[in-house]
């Protein structure tokens, strides 16, 4: 549903996969207070960029993810998600349930690894924590998807 006279816009989205997680990036610059709802089978995002343009999208995943262990990071130019799969194992043949191409959805080749490529063992808790620390680097807000309270004001103090 869109507001009167306002066209609904889809943000650009990029994704990459590992055996037990999905890297997902929603490209919206200067998005201060995004509305994010994560369920086992879908992700809802709504937010305004620095110019006031509203972006909204619902992604219905091909398979289930683990809401409890998934996280996101709000950065200056994007919102980055680390979505833990409910069942690690073979790669999905696509991200979304619907089997069609979307102009706003791209593969993130910088983060992509093929199934047979060697990679950090993401089942090792210490490697996963190290990756999370690296991803949250410069001026970002890290959020546990179970607690979607806006923590950005607290971090500025």
UniProtKB/TrEMBL annotation:
Residues 131-157 are annotated as: Disordered. SUPFAM superfamilies: HSP20-like chaperones. GO terms for cellular component: cytosol; nucleus. It comes from the Eukaryota. Gene3D superfamilies: 2.60.40.790. GO terms for molecular function: Hsp90 protein binding; protein-folding chaperone binding. GO terms for biological process: chaperone-mediated protein complex assembly; protein folding. Residues 8-96 form the CS domain. Residues 146-157 have a biased composition (Acidic residues). Belongs to the p23/wos2 family. This is Co-chaperone protein p23-1. It comes from Trichonephila inaurata madagascariensis. The gene is P23-1.
